[in-house]
Backbone:
């Protein structure tokens, strides 16, 4: 629970229905002030609907939402968006094409005009656009337009900033740089922020906490590191990163499977499915008598994804160093390093 002295965003058992379709089902989230959170999930999982519920663009059917310690939504109460102290950065930026940078930012201050010029100057400097105040949106790069949208959202000093797929319109190279800039800007502003994204790399590198949404509900909320190394469920493990699963029998902290005896992060007993991440597998060339064969190689420069065929016919993906030039059909040895996760067996 969020301490009263540090209120950010709190959702408790939030439900949103569209007729017979339940888009959001029982979502609960606690985000302390000054933290960055990503709502991560596939298309149609309810993450954008959740963001719109926080902003006030949608009305919830059950549950409550509080921002900055103040309840803004319940089944019987709906504070309008303009009174929620929320800044919004849309996927398309929504800049006014006939207004220059300063005027676009100034628009976000229409409810507090007294100190508007000073605030525009402050946030323009904060986002690195000083000297570009007179430029129109079409005279800016994609990254600069993104920063104008962010400056407009930050100008009224909102309790929370909401960003809906904010980097999807940028090319891959620019996306990496701009998201690092946006993270730094939000940190400097001390902002509480929620990002909606389906990009796992974006979510893991950008925020303090990741909330994985699947089929309308939040499956896990944790740090990016814990999410990746300790997925709460098999479904989360399958969604986040690459995953190999092998049936096994767990007996305490050791599980026996086709890859040999492996050490578990948490005690388990009985039939389980063992999660092995590709980067936890070491692969080396071996004599012809070795039972494993290279099935496929995808080379990325900094590493390579090597798919192995095991004696049983099962396939195993390994992410390995590019120092070896593996050939299709080549015999290899493999070794699993570190601790692994296990989940109750799924009958298929």
Residues:
């Amino acid at each position: 629970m969020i301490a009263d002295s540090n209120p950010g965003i709190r959702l408790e058992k939030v439900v949103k229905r569209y007729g017979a379709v339940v888009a959001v089902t029982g979502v609960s989230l606690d985000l302390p002030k000054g933290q960055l959170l990503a709502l991560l999930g596939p298309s149609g999982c309810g993450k954008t609907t959740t963001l719109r519920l926080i902003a006030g663009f949608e009305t919830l059917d059950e549950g409550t939402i509080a921002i900055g310690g103040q309840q803004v939504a319940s089944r019987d109460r709906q504070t309008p968006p303009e009174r929620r102290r929320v800044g919004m950065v849309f996927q398309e930026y929504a800049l006014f094409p006939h207004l220059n940078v300063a005027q676009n930012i100034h628009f976000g201050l229409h409810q507090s005009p007294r100190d508007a010029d000073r605030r525009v100057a402050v946030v323009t400097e904060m986002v690195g656009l000083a000297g570009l105040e007179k430029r129109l949106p079409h005279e800016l790069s994609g990254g600069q337009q993104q920063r104008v949208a962010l400056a407009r959202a930050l100008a009224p000093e909102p309790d929370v900033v909401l960003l809906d797929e904010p980097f999807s319109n940028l090319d891959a190279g620019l996306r990496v740089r701009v998201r690092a800039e946006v993270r730094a800007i939000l940190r400097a502003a001390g902002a509480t922020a929620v990002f909606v994204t389906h990009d796992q790399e974006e979510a893991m590198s950008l925020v303090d906490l990741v909330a994985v949404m699947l089929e309308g509900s939040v499956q896990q909320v944790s740090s990016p590191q814990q999410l990746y190394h300790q997925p709460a469920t098999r479904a989360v493990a399958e969604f986040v990163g690459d995953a190999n699963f092998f049936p096994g029998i767990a007996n305490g902290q050791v599980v026996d499977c086709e890859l040999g005896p492996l050490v578990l992060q948490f005690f388990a007993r009985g039939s389980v499915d063992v999660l092995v991440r590709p980067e936890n597998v070491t692969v080396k060339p071996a004599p012809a008598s070795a039972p494993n064969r290279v099935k496929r190689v995808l080379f990325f420069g900094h590493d390579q994804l090597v798919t192995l065929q095991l004696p049983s016919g099962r396939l195993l993906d390994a992410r390995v160093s590019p120092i070896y030039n593996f050939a299709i059909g080549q015999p290899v040895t493999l070794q699993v390093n570190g601790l692994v996760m296990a989940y109750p067996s799924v009958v298929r």
Remarks:
- The radius of gyration is 24 Å.
- The mean pLDDT is 92.
- The chain has two domains: 9-237, 244-344.
- The first helix runs from residue 47 to 55.
